[in-house]
Amino acid sequence: MDTDFHFSGQQSVYKGKVREVYTLQNDILVMIATDRLSAFDVVMPKGIPYKGQILNQIATKMMRATEDIVPNWLMATPDANVAVGVACEPFKVEMVIRGYMSGHAAREYKAGKRILCGEPMPEGMKENDKFPEPIITPATKAEKGDHDEDISKAEILERGIVSEADYAVLEKYTKALFQRGTELAAKRGLILVDTKYEFGKTKDGEIVLIDEIHTPDSSRYFYAEGYEERQIKGEPQKQLSKEFVRQWLISNDFQGLEGQTVPEMSDEYIETVSERYIELYESITGESFQKADVSNIQERIGTSVSDYLKTL
Length: 312
Hints:
five-stranded antiparallel sheet, alpha+beta, nine-stranded antiparallel sheet, globular, 312 residues
């Protein structure tokens, strides 16, 4: 749930919702994926066993599978929960791209909205229908504990959050990554429904992909088999994402709104969530999940990172 390392050359630590980022000398970042679980921009009181390892390993595989079309920050993964890469100045927007009307988009649509972040959503759509073309619906990056907020391209440019030239690159990269992600998912019998990408700029001015990509925390997947039939019958889609956690929270009267209390997650429920994350890993990667040794996880991570840093 928490780390407290002091690596060689360490300059600062940033603790996000689920990741802890250590900035070292020479523009090196050490990003540790914890087992914390965030939903509705709220960090849950209990962690999910192996979740950090799962997210880190999926993100690593997806970074490697897309580095030919979009440069990324990643240098190495010296530990199951750790990624090491180049420090960047992050853009203060998340590039959310949606191929289907699901999740947040569907909730907005049901509320009567037909424009999302400046992008039109056609009349007559049902939840989980495919958009004619994927739409980019950016969100402002929230500080820990705050909500991300929808924002349009026009607002981003008007407020000077991103320059027009840089935004054109972010748009191009977002579409290319989503296309590649869609192709990778199709090979696994999955549909990449929606996802988010984060970008940063290196000290040399290069725009690169940062953070995680195509993980169940940052993306929503449907099973391709039976998708059409379920849509015709108006049935819920069988999906791979942490949406099942969000739905459980909603059913327990929690959506991160003021005055609401996070419902108690029993040990039994947490175990089922962990099992679902392992299922997600194996479905998305097509590989059997190998649990890392967690008997002394802090020592394991500390040793792995320190040994790697000595090679630089």
